[in-house]
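> call design_seq(struct)
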């Protein structure tokens, strides 16, 4: 920028006092001050606008890179899903063909209903009901049961 020292400022002030005159100098100085303030604000606005546009360009570049990475991931997932679907279709076709080839010789057992199993019914009861009804929940061997409920000897 312009290097203005104290001696140059004094020289400008003396020239301005001679040219403008002592009665108009304060008004001219105020006008020059307001114009310089407006110029500084304008320069600051231009700088901030340039900075914003640079940041916007950087953000656009970043957005483009992120979108590209997302497209790559989506494409790889899509190809993996297609490959998995092809493999699954092939495996089911092979299994179906093997089943049809062995269907003449193999006999598939028919479904048999398990019937009413009292152990399954007992297992379906809630624990609070079992404890209230006095249902044994833990298996005990006969010897352990005898030892537990043996009457005490009186001495």
């Amino acid at each position: 920028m312009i290097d203005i020292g104290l001696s140059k400022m004094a020289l400008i002030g003396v020239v301005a006092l001679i040219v403008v005159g002592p009665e108009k100098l304060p008004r001219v100085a105020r006008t020059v001050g307001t114009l310089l303030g407006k110029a500084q604000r304008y320069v600051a606005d231009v700088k901030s606008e340039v900075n914003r546009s640079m940041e916007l360009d950087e953000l656009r570049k970043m957005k483009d890179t992120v979108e590209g990475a997302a497209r790559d991931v989506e494409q790889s997932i899509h190809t993996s899903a297609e490959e998995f679907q092809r493999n699954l279709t092939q495996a089911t076709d092979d299994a179906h063909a093997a089943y049809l080839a062995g269907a003449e010789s193999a006999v598939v057992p028919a479904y048999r209903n398990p019937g009413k199993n009292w152990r399954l019914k007992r297992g379906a009861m809630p624990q609070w009901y079992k404890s209230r009804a006095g249902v044994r929940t833990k298996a005990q061997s006969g010897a352990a049961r005898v030892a537990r409920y043996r009457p005490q000897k009186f001495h």
